[in-house]
Amino acid sequence: MNSGRIDNPLLLDEVLPRFPAIRPEHVEPAIRAIVEDNLRAIDLLLQNPAPDWKSLVHPLHNLNDRLEKAWAPVSHMNAVVQSEAFRAAHDACLPLLSDYHTRLGQHAGLFDAFHKIRSSNDFFALGVAQKKSIDNALRDFRLSGVDLCEENKKRFAEISARLSELSSCFSNNVMDATRAWKKLVQDADELAGLPETARNVARAQAAEKNQQGFLLTLDAPCYIAVMTYADDRDLRKEMYEAYVTRAPDNAGIIDETLALRVELSRLLGFSDYAEYSLATKMAESPQHVSDFLWQLVDQSRSVALAEFGELKEFALEKFGLSDLQSWDVAWLSEKLREESYAVDQEQLRQYFPLQRVLNGLFLVIKRLFSVDVVRNLEVDLWHADAEAYSVLRNGHVIARFYLDLYARDNKRGGAWMGDCRVRRLLDDGSIQLPVAFLVCNFMPPSNEQPCLLTFSDVTTLFHEFGHGLHHMLTQVDCAPVSGINGVEWDAVELPSQFLENWCWQKEVIPLISSHFRTGDSLPVDMLDKMLAAKNFQSGMQMLRQLEFALIDFLLHWRPEEGCSVQSVIDTVREKTAVLYPPSFNRFQNSFSHIFAGGYAAGYYSYKWAEVLSADAFSAFEESDIFDDATGHRFLVEVLERGGTEDAMSLFRRFRGRDPSVDALLRHAGLAGQREVA
Fold first, then answer.
1. Conformational region of residue 451, where left means phi above 0, alpha means psi within -120 to 50, and beta covers everything else
2. Architecture of domain 3-105+107-143
3. Among residues 562, 559, 552, which one has the least CA distance to residue 607?
4. Of 403, 382, 405, 407, which is closest to residue 201 (Cα–Cα)?
5. What are phi and psi of 480, to 5 degrees?
6. Which are the catalytic amino acids?
7. How high is the pLDDT of residue 3?
8. Chain region(s) in the chain for CATH 1.10.1370.40
């Protein structure tokens, strides 16, 4: 390796990335060098006429891990500290990576070698994880078009490369549109109703740009605060319209993406992309998913309509508002919640400073799974907001994770868990420890106060940490099925949604709450009111998520020639929307989950996995929420197993039976309605 390579931090084999040293000019040369090295190495590996795990599969995992260790920090930094130069460097690599993965997926020599290993007597001596990784690889070869003729292989590669490009472009457009819209408010009266927390942040953001007043943005914390609390209806409408009309250029990207997904799936012999997507999921068929979603709609629609009827009556009686619009719903709902339950969300958030919530979360994890979390102060980071931690069991580090929790410019919206390092066995017999990225977009601290979380923020943090636990607590040493790798996509939300349940427990809330100034505990009456309001508008919330899931699924299942995206959305809304949004609403142009993420024909996974997670949590309800035996069983049967077995088998071993929807309906306050199959 020459000195130029040595100077590139992405080419160094280090335990953790050197984020401050990574510059845009390092990215493309590093990825290109690794791809070229890997392809040469694979050719050499295939010269062995009798391939086995040791001579082929494990070395191949080494090669792919080297690439992933270089790409993971690049992809992450592009999402959290993006610049024009870094975006260009990131996007320049997408064709390289697409071509590499397509070449491997369509590599007849590799496919034949894996088939030989699968057919050999030695296969049966392999461990469970090794066997599963080989079976998955053979499946993925076929899903990558290894059996196609050369002409169709070429077209498959072209489609894959273009879809990768479109996904990145979609994400960039959303980020750019979100960042571009700003509104400077100089008259504080225009912000009547807006909490002091949000005002302080808006004031600080204006000051950062040498402006007087309050700077409003479309970043989630600001947008949600305005829509929930701002009394100025015109302001709410202005921000709503800006938010739901973001990234209009993405309309063309959506059309092209959907057309290419259909073409790709049909090249492989599937009737549509939904069928192709389910080849790697728990759900048996597209019809099974459709039935599941529509039955949940039937289950929740009457409740949702009743809740909305109550909201309309409240709007008319209290505010004389007869023409309820989309930009009124969150504001009115908060007013109704306050009147019905005497729950002041802004007062409540004063009891959930971020550090207190984190400390409590770590204590919950310790009690459930016998691990400790310790902050690392001497670790390279990409931004002053970021932090690094180690996870320990019996004093030994078993995993690490990064936190980046505040919204800011040049950072993608939303919340997610990303893979920095995967647990795997190294050549010297040691274990590469798993490392996770945990990212949120909370309202940042101000000069006046620390970061204070809404209760929705609290559940989001628990949710993402649940994903992190799935990645970090695995005991699987085989990378393709370690942690969340190899887990069916409609089961991957099980640990995340499962962990959310602890936020609502009376035994836990004192651990995650105390007043940020006084340190006082959350008053009992506030706690009781908060818990009483848990299922406020749960029917409307359920129906909203089902609307997203159905829109996603029907866009990818049995698409009709000439049927527009908007017509599919309109059809779903006719059966799910309690309030039809205005005609200018184009939320699909920022629906990143399915057009720039991994949820295409898979957004239903949130509800599918919620059935699993609610039922899993009910095992603790039947004993104790911190029951050692139940926690250990969930750790061993679910979290530690990764993707070594199908998710349904793991669930059955944990729960002792098939999953039931009863717990989900009970938790959502919808029990007693007609049963869902």
1. beta
2. Up-down Bundle (1.20)
3. 552
4. 407
5. -65, -15
6. 464
7. 40
8. 354-534
According to DSSP, the β-strands at 435-442 and 396-406 are parallel
* Contacts of 123-128 spanning 24+ positions with Cβ under 8 A: 126/53, 127/478, 128/644, 128/645
Residue 178 identity: T
Cβ proximity of 400 and 388 under 8 Å: yes
| Distance separating alpha carbons of residues 103 and 116, to the nearest angstrom | 19
Q: Where in the chain is the domain with CATH 1.20.1050.40?
A: 3-105+107-143
- Considering Cα of 545, then 548, then 554, then 556, what sign does the dihedral take? negative
Query: How many angstroms separate the most distant Cα atoms in the chain?
Result: 81
Q: List the one residue out of 163, 158, 168 whose CA is nearest residue 106.
A: 158
Which amino acid appears at position 357 of this protein?
V
Residue reference for tokens 């491997």: 104
Token pair 């993402």 is at which residue? Answer: 464
Distant-in-sequence, close-in-space partners of 505: CB < 8 Å, separation ≥ 6? 625
Helix H segments across 196-249? 196-208, 220-229, 233-244
Phi, psi of 504 (to 5 degrees): -95, 5
Nearest-angstrom CA–CA distance, 285 and 277: 10
Q: What is the pLDDT of residues 52-102, one digit of tens each?
A: 999 999 999 999 999 999 999 999 999 999 999 999 999 999 999 999 999
Give me the CATH topology for the region 354-534. Answer: Neurolysin; domain 3 (1.10.1370)
| pTM beyond 0.85, yes or no | yes
Type of residue found at 14? E
pLDDT tens figures, 487-541 = 999 999 999 999 999 999 999 999 999 999 999 999 999 999 999 999 999 999 9
Tokens read off for 394 = 């019996």
Task: Report the alpha-carbon distance of residue 671 to residue 614 in Å, rounded.
Answer: 13
